[in-house]
Amino acid sequence: MKITKICCIGAGYVGGPTMAVIAEKCPHIKVTVVDLNEKRIAAWNDVNVDNIPVYEPGLGEIVGKARGKNLFFSTEVDKAIDEAELIFISVNTPTKTYGTGKGMAADLKYIELCARQIARVSKTDKIIVEKSTLPVRTAEAIKSILDNTGNGVQFQILSNPEFLAEGTAVEDLLSPDRVLIGGETSPEGQKAIEALVDVYANWVPRERILKTNVWSSELSKLTANAFLAQRVSSINAISELCEKTEADVNEVAKAIGMDSRIGSKFLKASVGFGGSCFQKDILNLVYISKAFGLNEVADYWEQVIIMNDHQKRRFSRNIVQTLYNTVSGKKITFLGWAFKKDTNDTRESAAIYVADDLINEQANIGLFDPKVPFQQVLSDLDYLETRSSEENQKYINSFENPYEACKDAHAVAILTEWDEFKDYDWQKIYDNMLKPAFIFDGRNILDAAKMKEIGFVYQAIGS
Ligand code: UDX
Ligand code: ADP
Asked: Superkingdom, according to UniProt (predicted)?
C-alpha cells in the first residue's frame, strides 16, 4: 500500500512539527494538518513564518518551504479525513479534571471524538495512527469505536509514539534515535506497519525503525518518559543533600555521568521538570498499575512526581526564608516562564507553581520570558484556580525587556535556562536592584563566582 495523502488531526506541538518534517522529506505525499481551533490554523497559515503558533528553532523555515506545496493547514476536518489513506491522531490528552481517575487518568474524550468523526466520514479503508501520548490499550478503544460505528470500512490502528522533545523538535524529527511503530500481528496489521515504515524510510535509516505489537509501543512511550523524569528527580533528590553537605551537585553529576553505564544526559539539577509529557505519562503509568492491583509498582513511579513537587516547593520556600521570611510587597523578578528553553510551551512549567506559592505570600512578581506571551502566563495561573483572575493580575506583571523587569527588584529567580540570560549585563542589573540583591538560579546557568564578585547574594540548586 503506497501512501499519497496524509491527514493529521491536531495542529499542536506534536502534530505541527511532525507533519512539517514529513512534508519536507516526502514531497510526493500531500500532508494536511487540521484543527478545530480556527485561530491556531490561521496562525500556521500566517505569511510571516515567525508568527506560527509553535516556537521551535528551525521550524519556521521548514514550514515556509513546504507550505502551499504539499503541506496544508486547514479547519476542514471532514474533507481531509475523507481524502487521506493514513490519519495521524495528534490531539491533546490532558489529565482528567473530573470523575473517576481525576488528577491521574488521561482524558480521552478528544481521542474518542476524533475516532467517531473518522468513523462517520470515512468511505475508504484507512490506517489510523496514534501519535498523541496515550495510556496503554487506547488503540483497542479506538478500534472498537471505529469498527462499531463505521460503515463497513476497514481500519488498521497503529501506535507510533512521538519521542521529540520540545526545543529540539526539528532536530529530533530529522534524525531520531529510533521510530517506533506498533501494529497488529495479522497480515493486514503488518501491511499497515509497512506502509508507515515506507513513509519514515524516506529519511530515517530502516534499522532505526522498530516494529512491535501495539501494547509494547504504547507502553514504551510511557516508560521512556518515566525513566527520563526519574533521572531528573534522582539528581534533584541528591541536590538537596548536596545543599546540606559540602558536596556540589554539578560535580556529582559530572562524576557519575562519566560512568558509561549511567551516561551524562538528563542529570541537570533544576527547579523541577515540567512539560506536557513527564507528569502526565507517569500518572498514567501509576493509574494503570493501580488498576491492575500493582500497588508497589504504582508507588515506585509516583515517588518521581512527589520528588518533583517537593523540588518546586523547596525552591519557593527557600526564596521566602532567604528574604528574611517575608516577600510580602517585594518585587521578585522571574526570568523565564517556559518549561524549558527554546519553546513557547508552558504546560506544567515549574515557574507556574513557584509563582503561585510566592503570590500566596503576597510577593509582586515581575516577569520576562523571550517567547511566552503574558496572556499565557495569566491563563496558566488562572488554571490553578488558587485565586481569582483579578487577584492574579494584581500580583504579576510582565516586562518588555529583562532590565526593566529586574529594576527595583529584591531578587531575581531564574526559572528557564534560556541562553540569553547568561549574556545579560549583570552589573547593570545589580546596580538597579535593591540591596542586598539576591539571585536564585533554578537552572544553575550563571557563573557563581562572577555573580558574587559583582555583589549578588547568589544561590543555585544543589551547592
Ligand atoms: C519529553 C521527552 O524527552 C520526549 O522524548 C517526549 O516525546 C516528550 O517528553 P519534553 O517534555 O519536550 O520531552 O522535554 P525534555 O527535554 O524531556 O524536558 C522535560 C523537563 O525536564 C523540562 O522541564 C526540563 O527542563 C527538565 N530537565 C531535563 C531537567 O530539569 N534536567 C535535565 O537534566 C533534563
Ligand atoms: P500536543 O502537545 O499533544 O501537540 P496540543 O494541545 O498542542 O497538544 O495540540 C492538540 C491540538 O488538537 C489542539 O490544537 C486542539 O485544538 C486539537 N484538537 C483537539 N480535538 C480535536 C478534534 N476533535 N478535531 C480537531 N482538532 C482537535
From this structure: Bacteria
